[in-house]
Amino acid sequence: MKELIETIVKPLVDFPDDIHVDSVEEDQKITYKLSCNKSDMGKVIGKQGRVAKAIRTVVYAAGSSQQKKIFLEIVE
């Protein structure tokens, strides 16, 4: 799943080497934390959060086969 998130986000940003995805696994959920360069934050979030929503939609759909709920957080 980390590779999928990186594959989606890297073409959107100016500094693809600064993309980091960490995962926190709990009993019923997995949280992926996406961090990027501060200057790329707007590109990842998009106008009114549309890009972030689209990324989350793809990640949730890809993880629907797992037994755990998947969350994606965009952190600074």
Automatic annotation (TrEMBL):
Protein name from the UniProt record: RNA-binding protein KhpA
Keyword Transmembrane: no
Gene3D superfamilies: 3.30.300.20
GO molecular function terms attached to this record: RNA binding
One BP annotation, GO: peptidoglycan biosynthetic process
InterPro entries: KH_dom-like_a/b, KH_sf_prok-type, KhpA
Keywords: Cell shape, Cell wall biogenesis/degradation, Chaperone, Cytoplasm, RNA-binding
Any coiled-coil regions, as ranges: none
Highest taxon, organism lineage: Bacteria
Any Pfam family: KH_KhpA-B
Quaternary structure and partners: Forms a complex with KhpB.
Stated role: A probable RNA chaperone. Forms a complex with KhpB which binds to cellular RNA and controls its expression. Plays a role in peptidoglycan (PG) homeostasis and cell length regulation.
Chief subcellular location: cytoplasm
Compartmental location: Cytoplasm
The UniProt record lists the keyword Cell membrane: no
Native source species: Mesobacillus foraminis
Family membership noted in the UniProt record: Belongs to the KhpA RNA-binding protein family.
GO cellular component, one term: cytoplasm
Family annotation (SUPFAM superfamilies): Prokaryotic type KH domain (KH-domain type II)
